[in-house]
């Protein structure tokens, strides 16, 4: 989620518990990217991670519990926002990060699997919502700073602007076979900025 961050399990510091969690989450992410949510199996993930099945069952309890923890880990490790002093450049950086994430073979497949799982599993859906809430909250200050600089109306809702940047990219990713390139990402950012400047995302609107 550079899926809007580093690969799961690669940043967390030492300790056996942390190493086990990192290995299991990496294995879970690989398994989801390869076969989707429906084929996840805790015993297979334990084998991939080279840890005991008992450890995995005791700590996570279920596939949905493991996926929820994977999403938590992805949110915790996501890359910080870019601050350039220009709203358009900030949001282009955001859009390009989303674009790179979704077009990465492993990460794109992982996100498709997680989104599919969230449509039929409430716990996964809650975890996915928390993931995106974390990402939107991380990037919202770029919009708040633009308001302070006078680039946008004072009552602009920063969270709605950030959502408007990535929403077209996810729609294209999930509904077409079209190539998702940097030019597409830049257009998404430009459209969000133009709409924000026009007052579309003010709270009164």
UniProtKB/TrEMBL annotation:
Pfam families named in the record: TetR_C_11, TetR_N
Q: Which keywords accompany this UniProt record?
A: DNA-binding, Transcription, Transcription regulation
State the DNA-binding region(s): 41-60
Q: Which residues form the HTH tetR-type domain?
A: 18-78
- GO MF, any single term: DNA-binding transcription factor activity
What SUPFAM superfamilies does this protein's entry cite? Homeodomain-like (SSF46689), Tetracyclin repressor-like, C-terminal domain (SSF48498)
State what protein this is by name: TetR family transcriptional regulator
- Upper classification of the organism: Bacteria, Bacillati, Actinomycetota, Actinomycetes, Kitasatosporales
